[in-house]
Amino acid sequence: MSNFPESHPQLPIVTTLRAAGCVFAEDEARLLVADATNPEELAAMVARRAAGEPLEHVLGWAEFLGIRMTVDAGVFVPRRRTEFLVREAAALARPRAVVVDLCCGSGAVGAAIASVLDRPRVHAVDIDPAAVRCARRNLAGADGRVYSGDLYQPLPEALRGRVDVVVAIAPYVPTGAISMMPPEAREHEPRTALDGGADGLDVVRRVVAEAPDWLGPHGHLLLETSRRQVPGTLDAFARHGLVPRVVDLDGLHSSVVIGTGPG
Ligand SMILES: C[S@@+](CC[C@H](N)C(=O)[O-])C[C@H]1O[C@@H](n2cnc3c(N)ncnc32)[C@H](O)[C@@H]1O
Questions:
Q1: Atom of ligand 1 nearest to the CA of 131
Q2: 58-69 pLDDT, tens per residue?
């Protein structure tokens, strides 16, 4: 609901956003008007957006699987394509599953999984304190815990060999390709969220290498990656004894690689 009268002139906002290159200027203007609590705040929000900040950072939230997830400025914005990974993970998990969301960012993936599964226990990890703060808020209503640290390192030892599903959207952009990303990403999302090293697979390989220690019998590891990196990802899965399969969604440039541990 807008906080402004029906007659509030949105047109100048649309014009400003369009001039700044926002393709969905009308939709964005509507969201900004609805979220601002007074005209001064609205003007500041429009100025931030026109200067190139991601809409989600300006609003402070992103819609993900129909849920409003808090996304603070400086935290990776969850992508709608990742809803595909959430559905794949949900299809594999049993009731009361133990789920680990590695590289959780805002925690949107873990929180979305928690919203569709039957009483899962979600453990989420990120190395960036700003992301951890955000994830704690998004997972507050779930049976979940959020840890700060490097990949599996902060997880409780008791989870070793008992995790049903590990999901990870690790940084997977090759270092040399970051300069070609849209400015919204490369200027407003942290480098640690994007940079996957020379071939984009540095963090992915570490996630895969340690997964067998944490997965229970027939546990699953799900990774989102770019289609170009699927062969390298499959190679990592095979090296660590995970039986992989690849799931692509038409129209997306990313794939989900799912590895299942030996029984
Ligand atoms: C591409 S973002 C994905 C965030 C979230 N899963 C999502 O889809 O919105 C990658 C995240 O991995 C985190 N990260 C990078 N290296 C990490 C590491 N070694 N351990 C834990 N988290 C890491 C970054 O801080 C960032 O939040």
A1: 27
A2: 999 999 999 999
